Amino acid sequence: MGARSKARKRALDVLFEADQRDSPPLDVLATRLADSDGPTNPYVTSLVTGVVEHQDEIDELLTTYSVDWPLDRMPAVDRSVLRLAVYELLWSDEVPPAVAIDEAVELVKALSTDESPAFVNGLLGRIHALRPRPATQRSAPARDAAAGVAVPPVGFEPTNPAV
Q: What own/partner pairs with CB < 8 Å and gap ≥ 24 does 14-22 have?
């Protein structure tokens, strides 16, 4: 497992624990960092902080594009993985979108239900295809094209988000 994959797993652990304890994720992260035996990958902090900063919009997107699955009905681990992946898809230039989706699917394969990989893959694919990245955070079109991912034009809003 690569360093970024390990960082995602650690960030997921923090987000999942915060969700289960109904605690602020940054408090859980601070506790985990204080209890750590050694230095941690700064990408963990970047991911958790990013999810916290954008959680309202992330949750709105998950609710909008998830068909018949409100956030509170999703398995907690799926909800945490989805929040992490949506942050990476829309606000992080650290990885290509295809990698963010694949990493999320791999996490739920290892940690969640048998149905979760297809659900997570479908929902993230829908969000990526129908919701453009914020213009201030969008990577250069050449990078998106190199990743083999078509990005809708800025301002594109689907007429039927359940597609």
A: 14/44, 14/48, 15/48, 15/51, 15/80, 15/83, 15/84, 16/76, 16/77, 16/80, 19/76, 19/79, 19/80, 20/76
pLDDT over 50 at 31, yes or no: yes
- The answer to the question of residue 163 being in a domain is no
Q: pTM here?
A: 0.79
CATH number at residue 135: 1.10.940.10
Output the six-digit token pair for 120.
């997570």
153 within some domain: no
- Does residue 159 belong to any structural domain of this protein? no
